């Protein structure tokens, strides 16, 4: 019996034991995170663009105004999401400077906050993400869920910094807390339709109302998004990187007793785009012999790409692309008001099915003809919390959390007739004979189970009317068990492999296991100088769970797997933060400032192993990382017709110690000593023996990948009252802009994979009648700026750099109606 069901029975027993209760009394909705009583969606971007009034959030698992919560956070309301076209996490980054999201396909995605969260460019099911994604309090363990469309969303809270003492799953970098619109006892309906260039269409609809007066309410929601691809494949004669999304959601709210609410939710989402392609961006020189670099290799095959300008948006990859995924689940949330506190139970089951097809050589030659890792995941979570009601001398949140996950993956990789030329040394035994690697096939069977349990709590002692002290603790247990079996056969179907073949795809069989207990905590001291000025200081000591390698192990000199590298230790995080939250000018202006300093030991990243001269990267504990910075969120409403916002983030994120990192493309195949910040480091022994390529590079002091030093978002909206067709409302003109400075797109920084800074501008103009309808035209990437979301290297270190361009200019219109 789940804890949620136990709550139902307990509440019913309590009601039965109180015969004097008036059954006809007015229903009192418990003060719970699901049903805050004072939330207003007036601020289009919460603190980012509100400039007045209060925005109620549930970041600390109780309803509070955002200005009184001593956490660096931002809130985006449902209206803002619609008007800015922010319908998934990737688009959310344009209005959230400290949030980074990168995705080459849904499985290979990463969400980072302040540069931390997940190893950049690496997918390994055996480790966890540092940024938690929650939808209506349910933890989503697969980062692929962030690629789906937001459906019937009331608001999104982005919390920055460790959150392990407040949330079910431990999150060391932050959390994205998505709250959907709850069922309503007042009948209502919403419809939103959008259309634009590239055959873009998006339709959203929801309906809600009572099934039993004052007892049971229902909400049904759906979202459909389709768009033609923006990249044209000249070989397959089709558009690629399209969108094809479907989301369905249902919720039942039951007022079981005057003090007990239950919400049963079910959702299903499906994506089936012709996606995802990265393709030729540029070529960089390496230290390999010229006949092993891209230009010579392509010329020897008589090959040239359709265009050497990536922004012509042409490719000729010769493998069919597919990125089909299905995601869904059920949850039951119970909130029981027991007077002094509210008891909450969150029971959930979720699944994720992944069916891909990729072209991992990124060009039109048959090097890797098949690359796919179909995967099926199930997860079960149970969270039980008790939180004090109202504000008292001692507020508290205490909870227990259980998480179980199972993943089954069936990997397949097949090499083609051009593989020998691109991947083998011509002086090797197999040379460049196409038959050496043609048909070489790896079939991987991967199993994984993950169990996590925790006790957590947060107390807030109000020393007086101004000063509060909030300690938090978390006791966490993690266990991960895996199985990795890779069966490799040659083109004749035999398991008898040559040294050349084992160097490209080596058979492996291992069963890693990891178990760990850890205790983490935090302490926040907050001071309210007056109702409009709040200070806080936070120290947190947290852990990101250790893990196991489930993408294959590095090989020794005999091409055998190194079993000592099966597991990865937890990351150890020390986090310091100072914050100031202010409102002034009769609350028409809001300025919030946060400064942070975070250090991580045993950072989980891709490394190389010097002792056995391994030249292949794998997941391990790299060393130490430090990120520090300052964030400013500001919003102003000078008049009732005009509002403006500006957010800024300065983030200095670096490896403080990383001595065995993969070398950047410039040093691939070289025997020169490693170079760090323009200085030669190391000793001849560390550089390997003469004639051998570098086994590693020391990149201590370099940037962390994926994070810009400077990031901004800014915008404004002006409206004029008007009456159209007898409906009172206002015409409005809005602008939203963003900027990100140069960032590295490779674990080891390279001049070839640095992405230049870029700015984006979006505009909209229309007419809206609040609570009724809204119609507007929009243009995104107004100036058609060419920019890359990602750059990466081709397998084999040939010097080919491939890219994933961002969207070109898009335009269209949106009309929505509320009934």
Automatic annotation (TrEMBL):
Signal peptide: 1-21
Chief location of this protein within or outside the cell: membrane
Membrane topology, record value: Multi-pass membrane protein
Source organism superkingdom: Bacteria
Region of interest (Disordered), residue spans: 17-54
Entry's transmembrane regions: none
Residue span(s) of domain TonB-dependent receptor plug: 66-175
Keyword Plastid carried by entry: no
Residue intervals of the TonB-dependent receptor-like beta-barrel domain: 291-782
Protein name in UniProt: Iron complex outermembrane receptor protein
Lineage per the UniProt record: Bacteria, Pseudomonadati, Pseudomonadota, Alphaproteobacteria, Sphingomonadales
């Amino acid at each position: 019996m789940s804890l949620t069901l136990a709550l139902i029975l307990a509440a019913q027993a309590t009601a039965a034991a109180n015969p004097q209760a008036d059954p006809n009394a007015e229903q009192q909705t418990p003060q719970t995170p699901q049903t805050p009583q004072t939330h207003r969606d007036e601020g289009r971007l919460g603190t980012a663009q509100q400039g007045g009034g209060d925005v109620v959030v549930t970041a600390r698992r109780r309803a509070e105004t955002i200005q009184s919560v001593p956490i660096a956070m931002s809130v985006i309301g449902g209206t803002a999401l619609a008007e800015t076209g922010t319908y998934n996490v990737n688009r959310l980054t344009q209005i959230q400077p400290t949030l980074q999201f990168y995705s080459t396909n849904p499985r290979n995605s990463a969400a980072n906050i302040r540069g931390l969260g997940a190893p950049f460019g690496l997918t390994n099911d055996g480790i966890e993400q540092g940024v938690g994604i929650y939808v209506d309090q349910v933890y989503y363990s697969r980062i692929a869920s962030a690629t789906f469309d937001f459906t019937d969303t009331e608001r999104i809270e982005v919390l920055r910094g460790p959150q392990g003492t407040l949330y079910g799953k431990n999150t060391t970098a932050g959390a994205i807390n998505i709250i959907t619109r709850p069922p309503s006892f007042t009948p209502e309906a919403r419809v939103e339709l959008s259309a634009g260039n590239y055959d873009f269409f998006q339709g959203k609809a929801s309906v809600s109302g009572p099934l039993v007066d004052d007892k049971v309410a229902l909400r049904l929601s759906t979202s459909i998004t389709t768009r033609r691809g923006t990249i044209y494949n000249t070989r397959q004669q089709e558009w690629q990187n399209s969108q094809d999304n479907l989301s369905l959601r249902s919720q039942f709210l039951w007022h079981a007793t005057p003090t007990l609410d239950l919400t049963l939710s079910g959702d299903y989402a499906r994506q089936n785009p012709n996606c995802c392609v990265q393709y030729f961006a540029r070529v960089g020189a390496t230290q390999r012999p010229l006949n092993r670099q891209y230009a010579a290799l392509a010329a020897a095959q008589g090959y040239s790409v359709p265009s050497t300008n990536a922004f012509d948006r042409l490719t000729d990859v010769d493998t069919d692309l597919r990125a089909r995924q299905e995601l869904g689940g059920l949850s039951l949330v119970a909130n029981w008001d027991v007077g002094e506190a509210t008891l909450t139970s969150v029971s959930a089951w979720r699944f994720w099915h992944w069916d891909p097809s990729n072209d991992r050589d990124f060009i039109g030659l048959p090097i890797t003809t098949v690359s796919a890792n179909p995967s099926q995941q199930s997860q079960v979570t149970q969270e039980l919390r008790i939180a004090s009601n109202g504000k008292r001398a001692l507020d508290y949140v205490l909870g227990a959390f259980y998480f179980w996950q199972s993943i089954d993956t069936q990997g397949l990789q097949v090499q083609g007739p051009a593989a020998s030329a691109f991947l083998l040394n011509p002086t090797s035994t197999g040379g460049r004979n196409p038959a050496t690697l043609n048909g070489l096939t790896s079939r991987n069977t991967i199993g994984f189970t993950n169990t996590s349990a925790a006790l957590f709590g947060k107390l807030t002692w109000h020393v007086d009317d101004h000063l509060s002290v909030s300690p938090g603790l978390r006791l966490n247990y993690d266990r991960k068990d895996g199985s990795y079996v890779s069966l490799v056969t040659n083109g004749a179907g035999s398991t008898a492999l040559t040294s050349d073949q084992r160097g490209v795809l080596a058979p492996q069989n291992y069963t890693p296991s990891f178990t760990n207990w850890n205790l983490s905590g935090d302490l926040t001291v907050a001071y309210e100088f007056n109702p409009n000025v709040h200070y806080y200081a936070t120290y947190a000591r947290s852990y990101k769970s250790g893990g196991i390698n489930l993408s294959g192990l590095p090989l020794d000199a005999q091409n055998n797997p190194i079993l000592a590298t099966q597991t990865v230790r937890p990351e150890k995080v020390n986090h310091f933060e100072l914050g100031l939250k202010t409102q002034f000018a009769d609350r028409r202006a809001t300025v919030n400032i946060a400064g942070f300093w975070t250090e991580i030991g045993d950072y989980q990243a891709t490394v190389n192993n010097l002792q056995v001269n391994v030249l292949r990267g794998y997941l391990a504990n790299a060393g130490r990382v430090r990120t520090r910075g300052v964030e400013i969120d500001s919003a102003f409403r000078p008049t009732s017709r005009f509002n403006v916002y500006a957010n800024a983030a300065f983030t200095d994120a670096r490896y403080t110690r990383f001595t065995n990192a993969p070398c950047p493309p410039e040093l691939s195949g070289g025997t020169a000593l490693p170079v760090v910040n323009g200085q030669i480091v190391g000793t001849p022994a560390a550089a390997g023996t003469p004639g051998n390529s570098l086994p590693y590079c020391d990149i201590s002091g370099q940037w962390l990948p994926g994070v810009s030093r400077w990031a901004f978002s800014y915008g404004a909206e002006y409206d004029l009252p008007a009456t159209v067709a007898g409906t009172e409302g206002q015409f409005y003109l809005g602008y939203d802009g963003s900027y990100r400075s140069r960032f590295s797109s490779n674990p080891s920084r390279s001049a070839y994979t640095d992405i230049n800074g870029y700015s984006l501008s979006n505009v909209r103009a229309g007419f809206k009648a609040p609570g009724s309808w809204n119609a507007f035209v929009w243009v995104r990437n107004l100036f058609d700026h060419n920019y890359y979301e990602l750059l990466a290297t081709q397998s084999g270190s040939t010097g080919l750099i491939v890219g994933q361009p961002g969207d070109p200019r898009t335009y269209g219109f949106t009309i929505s109606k509320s009934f």
